[in-house]
Amino acid sequence: MFIAQSRRTALCYGANMSWLSEAWTVPSEFNGIVECRRALGQWTVTVNGCSESSGYMYGLWKQGIKHLPKKAPIKRILMLGLAAGCSIETLHRRFPGVHITAIEWDPVMIQVMDRLKLFRPIHRPEIIIGDAAHVIPTLNKKFDLILFDLYQGPTSPENVKHQHFFKALQPLLQRDGFLIVNAYAQTEMFATARTSFAEQSHWKYHLNYLALYRAFGAGTIGDPLPKGYVQFRSNHGYLERDLTTNKNSALVGTKDAPGFRRWNGPCCIEKYYGDTEPKIDPKGPKRLIIWQPTQRLDKPVHWRRSLIQMNAQITGFVDLNGGQDPFTTWTPHAQRHLKRWLAQSNEWEFIKLTLEQFIPIYMSSSMSPSLKELHREIIERKSKAHGDIFHLFGFKRKSTGKIEAGLATLDIPELNQSIHIASFILDSAKNDPIGIGMIELWFKDAQQRKIRFLDFDLFRGPGDPKEWKGFSRFKAQFGTYFIRYPNPLIRWEGTWKEYLKHFR
Fold first, then answer.
1. DSSP state of 285
2. Region 7-214: CATH code
3. What angle in degrees, to the nearest 10, is found between the helix axes of 434-448 and 332-344?
């Protein structure tokens, strides 16, 4: 936390103190003696010989926020530890219009901050005076960025270094938010933070060690999954039904780790999903075996890590039993459009459709012909393979009697899941909040039928087609828990003798 980086800043936004040299101390019940020194316009505030605000701390946090994505939507920041507030201006320059809430346990330090005037008056943060360990459980706001800098001299108080403190921070961080921890020399704090957050990176700034964290479910490889969630492609029942319509595929593996073998012309590929290592039949045809773990990052014997991602990079789902009303987890944008939808939902009628009704309307939508053809084949195949647990919904405008939007979903009863397969909106309904209406219908229908997980399946990842971007952004609005997959494990197995039998 720094004071001055230019002559204008060095004037401390109106403070009429000596610019060249000045020193004074303030006794504090919490920190002992707080020492304030200025030399050539730059203030240094120290406690027990440790810097609380200085050029060093300014540089530490200036570099720290550079580890955030350039387009990170930071609108609300929680500062755990304010000291003299030297990083306030830096945060406002990087995130214009941001609202900052700071927790500071020492009232004397706030008096020092107000006396030094290290930031513009309009940027004075909302300050909560108290012990962070006691204040955090009382907060009911969510923040896009949390900065951890809680120190009493060279060490952090014991009550903020334990798992229960970081667990209490979890509900305060937005799903797509960021946490930066300044551990100084206490690197064991990183392991503690990893019990509640996903570590994305760590770095060193001179003598200080820092790390960047995301909320679980924000899309970090290896994030823990809610108890009960299983990737549907690793389910034996789903695969058994799904493969009945594909003559070039066969179910392989075991019930605990099922997979499928598929012939694409002369190529034979065998695929498995999930974290249970598949049992491979060495007597099968010569083939490439691809195993896509969900969370596992290790590499068992006989497997190699692929250099490229051969499967979906990111998928996402919603847990309807996540402990709160799922509609409250929607983004503000989605909730605004939900209000619009609820205000006009009586203008629409929701009906179930047959495959013969759904397909012609779907094919009349304005999506690209290649995408429509691909989805048509998927819809027809899923309908034939899964029967009554495959659902086709239509939204009919009452005033015209015309179906203008539709949704296809698939139940996985063994996993208490419903999968989003496809959807469409005709041009005549583009200005209506019908997309939100379809998601609201899906959520409520699942709640009524006691389905727990709603799986949006594929999301756009780096390098994926740009055409996926808009729909991926749309699907990310609903409290979505993301899974980012590690690169798959691969191996060659089988015999050429068995391989050649396929062509006889």
1. B
2. 3.40.50.150
3. 90
What percent of the residues of the chain are helix, what percent strand, and what percent coil, each to the nearest 5?
A: 35, 30, 35
DSSP type of residue 222: T
Q: What is the DSSP letter of 488?
A: P
Q: Is the pTM of this model over 0.90?
A: no
Q: How far apart are CA 286 and CA 496, in angstroms?
A: 5
Question: Is the Cα torsion angle 383, 388, 393, 398 positive or negative in sign?
Answer: positive
Check residue 247 and give its pLDDT: 85
Rounded CA Rg of the chain: 28
**Is CATH 3.90.1490.10 the classification given to domain 314-484?**
no
Q: What is the rounded distance in angstroms from the CA atom of residue 289 to the CA atom of residue 86?
A: 56
Supply 372's token pair.
């429509």
Exposed/middle/buried for 362, CB within 10 Å: 0-12, 13-18, 19+? buried
How deeply is 461 buried, as exposed, middle or buried, from its count of CB atoms within 10 A (0-12, 13-18, 19+)? middle
Find residue 253's DSSP bridge partners: 258
- Which residues are paired to 390 by β-bridges? 410
Tell me the three-class secondary structure of 159-193, residue by residue: HHCCHHHHHHHHHHEEEEEEEEEEEECCCHHHHHH
Bridge partner residues of 458 (DSSP): 315
Q: Please give the single-letter amino acid code of residue 383.
A: S
Tokens of 218: 């924000």
Question: Are β-strands 417-425 and 402-412 bridged in parallel, bridged antiparallel, or unpaired?
Answer: antiparallel
- Averaged over successive runs of 10 residues, the pLDDT of the chain (504 residues) comes to 34 49 82 83 80 81 93 94 86 94 90 86 92 93 94 76 92 94 91 95 94 96 94 96 92 96 94 96 94 96 95 95 85 94 94 96 91 92 96 96 96 97 94 95 95 96 86 94 97 93 82
Distance CA(107)–CA(497), nearest Å, equals 80
Cα angle for residues 376, 378, 380 (degrees, 5° grid):
70
Which residues, 6+ apart, have CB-to-CB distance to 482 below 8 Å? 217, 218, 219, 223, 314, 315, 316, 459, 476
pLDDT at 7 (0 to 100) = 31
Q: Are 210 and 180 in contact (CB under 8 A)?
A: yes
What are the residue ranges spanned by the domains of the chain? 7-214, 232-311+488-501, 314-484
What are the start-end ranges of the H helices in 194-283? 236-242
Tokens of 494: 């089988």
